Amino acid sequence: MVVALPFAYQDGMDKYTGIMRYLRETKADWELLIVRDVLDVDHFREYMSRRVSGVICGAVGMVDVDGSDEHIPKTCLRMCGESKTPMVGLDWPSADVKGRQFRKVSFLNVNSDRIGALAAQTVMGYGRYAAYGFVGACRGCAWSRNRGASFARELRKNGLYNVRIFKGDAVSEPDVLKKWLASLPRPAAIFAANDYAADLVMRACAHGGLRVPDDFSVLGVDDDPVFCVHTRPTLSSIHPDFEEMGYLAAKELSRLMDDKANGRRMVVSGNPTVTNRMSTAPSSPSGMLVRRAEEIIARRACQAVDSNAIADELQISRRLLDLRYRQFKGVSVREDIILTRIRRAKHLLAYSGHTIGTICKMCGYRTESYLGKIFLQRVGVTMGDYRNRNIGKG
Fold first, then answer.
1. Are 73 and 57 in contact (CB under 8 A)?
2. Taking Cα atoms as reference points, which of 5, 14, 3 lies closest to residue 225?
3. Cβ 56 vs Cβ 39: under 8 Å
4. 73 prior amide bond cis, ω within 30
5. DSSP label at 356?
6. Is beta strand 62-65 parallel, antiparallel or unpaired with respect to 68-71?
7. Start-to-end Cα distance in the chain
8. More exposed terminus of the chain, fewer Cβ within 10 Å: N or C?
9. What's the number of CA atoms in the CB half-sphere (13 Å) around residue 226?
10. What are the CA-CA distances from residue 138 to residues 153, 190, 312 (Å)?
């Protein structure tokens, strides 16, 4: 099997984790040939000569689709069709694969409509803004366009009509982007189609003297540490369920290896989540303080951390921290730490093969019985029952 994914980015690593989880659960005996970035034609031709039995491939290479450059290994796709090798393409645009030679090709794509709607719901939860904007990943890119349309549609459904769409190319026209941002009423909430586009927005703001998050709240997609964690301010982002996509890709490839199975197009919804960071923090000092506490909890909740340790890191009293946290979040710091650990436990139960005892330690608890009691109180079922009901679902 050939697995070609962009391992330099978080989505590639998550998809690979999902593939490996499928192999572990099904005990499938696949020998994997790993391509860490671009699946170029020469290497692909070499793999085809070895008569590989299947391919899972992320979007790499360039092709013109609907008048715009899209990422898709078109030549590799043709070779798969000619050799009748089962192939699953991840996050590819629509491509012309009609004909019997492509009957062993399937496509899996993230549900862009759901991502856009979640972005709108998220920024509405931050408060009221004078304007809402969308910045696409590239001009004419279909999935980017769909995310923007869904974002605007969800806002308008909730009575928010001052929605602006950036029509230029954020990559090649940074000055145009800067002028567009400066023209928006403030404060404004900006949703970018991915973290790269969000990073371009934040750079344009910095160069134009526009403040994030005071003037602009910025939300991206992919939750990639390269853009989200190592920037100032740190970037809030939607994390699509890439791991589920990898799992379903392996499952789909296994199905395609049946002689009678035909390819198909699938949209992966999964369970996208939002990681809040400083780019969407409230502008007040108290709101900024709470967002910094949220970041610490997200980073260290499953380690030895408590309210005192967070208060010490923020250099304030625990009493003041709890007071501000309850004002903004409606729960105590301690409760949010517990809820974060429970979410981590649910993810590990559904996605990993770790024992419950190991999961307890990974979630910051020394004993299985203590987490088991808290889990039952918060979730309503035991950890074992939750695993049985949700394994493979996320």
1. yes
2. 14
3. no
4. no
5. H
6. antiparallel
7. 25
8. C
9. 11
10. 20, 16, 43
List the alpha helices (DSSP H) in the chain: 10-26, 41-49, 74-83, 112-126, 142-157, 174-183, 195-207, 225-228, 242-256, 285-300, 307-314, 318-329, 333-351, 356-362, 368-379, 383-390
Give the residue-averaged pLDDT of 258-279.
Answer: 86
Joined tokens for residue 310: 């967070």
Whole-number Å distance between alpha carbons of 110 and 143: 9
Which amino acid does the sequence have at 259?
D
Phi, psi of 4 (to 5 degrees): -115, 110
Residue type at 98? K
Judge whether 40 and 2 are in contact, CB under 8 Å. Answer: no
> pTM for the full model?
0.78
At position 45, the amino acid (one-letter code) is R
Query: Token digits for 276?
Result: 């809040």
pLDDT 10s digits, 14-73: 899 899 989 988 888 888 888 776 666 677 777 777 778 888 888 654 444 444 444 445
3-state secondary structure at position 312: helix
The sign of the torsion formed by the CA atoms of 382, 385, 390, 394 equals: positive
Check if the beta carbon of residue 237 is closer than 8 Å to that of residue 277: yes
Give the model's pLDDT for residue 112.
92
d(CA 355, CA 371): 13
**Main-chain phi, psi angles of 110, to 5 degrees:** -65, 145
Q: Which domains does the chain have, with CATH numbers?
A: 2-108+241-271 (3.40.50.2300), 113-240+274-280 (3.40.50.2300), 285-390 (1.10.10.60)
| Strands 188-192 and 236-239, sheet pairing | unpaired
**Amino acid letter, residue 284:** S
